[in-house]
Design goal:
Two copies of one chain form a homodimer.
Chain A lengths: L4 E2 L9 H10 L18 H18 L5 E6 L2 H13 L5 E6 L2 H10 L4 E7 L23 E3 L2 E2 L4 E2 L11 E4 L16 E5 L10 E6 L16 H6 L9 H17 L1 H21 L4 E2 L11 E6 L5 H10 L2 E2 L10 E4 L6 H18 L1
Parallel strand pairs in A: 1-13, 3-4, 3-5, 5-8, 8-9
Antiparallel strand pairs in A: 2-10, 6-7, 9-10, 11-12, 12-14
Chain lengths: 360, 360
């Protein structure tokens, strides 16, 4: 088997033990004679898988009892519409914070449903930092405040949960959920596409305070109605069963690693070592404000960008895959989610040093 | 490994060779060192998988070049909204045919977006037949005609494609697509949840004539806009990559079986043998009009329904799983999609005869 480290931003590397377990069970789950993919979603076998996954996620994130946990389809892009369609609740405006590419997509979609108050933006700094919370121009009449705690493309991450008073806080946590402990009670709604820290693509987790759901805009498709999903235990229609099962295996794996405190310790160390390698050299550069550097997505550039192509080719030859930065920012990006082992980060750091020696 | 035959209506049994192949490739796809689940959807590896799957589906169904083929999320339930949101194109009404539980769901959702003309219904016959096409009250001003060629719950299937003149025909083919050759050119739009004849749950295939897309109702979420998906090659956002890959393996398997003509021959034979077993006995009964009996979903009852529970227990002990009929019709249902081997149907017929001997 080819040994590689895959730094893709998502879909992303999965824990080896999870993939091995999925492989072992692929033809016959627990003696049922069926693959999980073949099970009726309403049968006792899959129901036990689904319930265990939700219970494990609730335990990992210490989700309060008055929150629904939904396992949906459609990715964050669906949430960009679902959030206003469900959370406006008769209000005409919502606050949005613009910290990069994913914020902008959320804002563009929300503008189709309400008046967006751009309460803060770091666009002036080319999204290399986070707008200081003290300067946010929040609207007390807003239905909610939406922000993106970690920008996958820019590699900018909030270091604290913003205070929004009585206005519900909504977060796109696709690229940071489960990377560390989280105070869910501070949020009205959290959503995350699975394909970074949860499992395979095609699953979206939504955690929402019960009292916020139940009223939708006219014309909201039934599939975009949180309340209907909640009433049906995320089985309003056939859910993405195999992705849900994989997510459950990932939750178990995180528990086996020691939970979110342990993940945070490893993630902070991995990111710290990589940023240190970048900072100690003039050959490499990180554009991001020190305070807001992401633990999950580490963009960096080469001082001489004519070497970019050669860097990527040699990295690929060494088994370090998908390091090319997003086309909108250029350079490199190493996504180092929970499932990236420390050995992968070490291999990248070693390669970077070697490449610098040979070309610097 | 436990040997079973799984008659679930969906998610449903998958071809053994497909699952074996998926298992072999689960940790390392073609020497890439990555699971398909871990691949960037925009990388060359997954792009090749996605393109091959589309090419194989186009070849199997002989899809004309002026049709988009979309690989989406959200199941038929999302399509119930997407169809009117995209295909009304300024018109106020659409024709719907009611042949059972899934038709009714499509109708209920469409009513939220337009005036539904119920052009025909078989509700009077308790959905055991199809309303004669000659008596349909089609509206020439309708934006489209929607019908359900195969009703998964009732086991009723059309034996011909209805003629709707210039009005585009739209079909929910979730439980019949790929069961036999199909003249796609007769349709404006075909959709199908994958979890019956295509692959695992979480993927939805849409085949739509190019000229029908581009205009949507105000407030349509971007994820519900066919045109945006078409422009982005079904990668408006991260697609359900693993389900797409599995679908591709299923398409290859169908090609290896001899294509849709070969599938049709086997499917007709499987269904014919099962209906024959039901009809030759007074112990079992099929409620469905002979002419419209489904090849895919075979509901049947026991003359003495007090034996239902015992039938299901003994069947389960024999490895014949998920034969319980839908709660809305009772009795039994054997779903015998493409992937159900003839040996499975034989085992069911043998068991039915043995159960009748012991209890009849």
């Amino acid at each position: 088997m080819t040994v590689v480290y895959n730094f893709s931003a998502g879909p992303a590397t999965l824990p080896g033990t999870v993939l091995n377990r999925a492989r072992e069970e692929l033809l016959d789950w627990h003696g049922s004679g069926m693959s999980v993919m073949e099970m009726s979603h309403r049968g006792k076998e899959f129901m036990s898988i689904a319930q265990q996954a939700e219970a494990d996620l609730r335990e990992l994130l210490v989700i309060p009892a008055d929150y629904h946990v939904l396992f949906l389809q459609g990715g964050a892009t669906s949430q960009f519409s679902m959030v206003p369609m469900n959370l406006l609740r008769g209000r005409q405006q919502a606050d949005y914070i613009n910290t990069g590419a994913w914020s902008k997509k959320a804002i563009a979609e929300a503008r189709r449903y309400c008046s967006v108050n751009l309460a803060a933006s770091s666009e002036d700094s080319n999204f290399t930092t986070v707008p200081p919370v003290d300067n946010w121009q929040l609207d007390p009449a807003a239905a909610y405040v939406h922000y993106t705690p970690n920008e996958t493309i820019g590699g900018v991450e909030f270091d604290a949960i913003p205070e929004t008073g009585a206005v519900p806080l909504v977060a796109d946590m696709s690229s940071t959920i489960l990377s560390r402990p989280l105070d869910v009670s501070r949020y009205g709604l959290i959503y995350a596409g699975a394909q970074k820290n949860i499992g395979p693509a095609g699953l979206t987790v939504v955690i929402v305070r019960n009292e916020l759901v139940g009223e939708v805009l006219d014309g909201t498709p039934s599939m975009f109605n949180y309340q209907l999903h909640a009433e049906n235990g995320s089985m309003l229609n056939t859910p993405p069963t195999f992705a849900w099962y994989l997510a459950g295996l990932v939750f178990q794996w995180i528990r086996e690693q020691g939970g979110l405190e342990a993940m945070a310790e490893v993630n902070q160390r991995k990111a710290g070592r990589l940023y240190e390698a970048i900072d100690r050299s003039d050959f490499y550069n990180s554009p991001v404000d020190l305070r807001y550097r992401s633990w999950m997505n580490v963009p960096f550039t080469l001082a001489d960008d004519s070497l970019d192509a050669e860097f990527l080719i040699q990295a690929g030859n060494t088994g370090l895959l998908n390091l090319k930065g997003h086309r909108s920012v250029g350079g490199m990006r190493a996504s180092i989610y929970n499932a990236m082992p420390e050995a992968g980060v070490s291999a990248l750091i070693d390669f970077m040093a070697e490449f610098e020696r040979s070309r610097g």
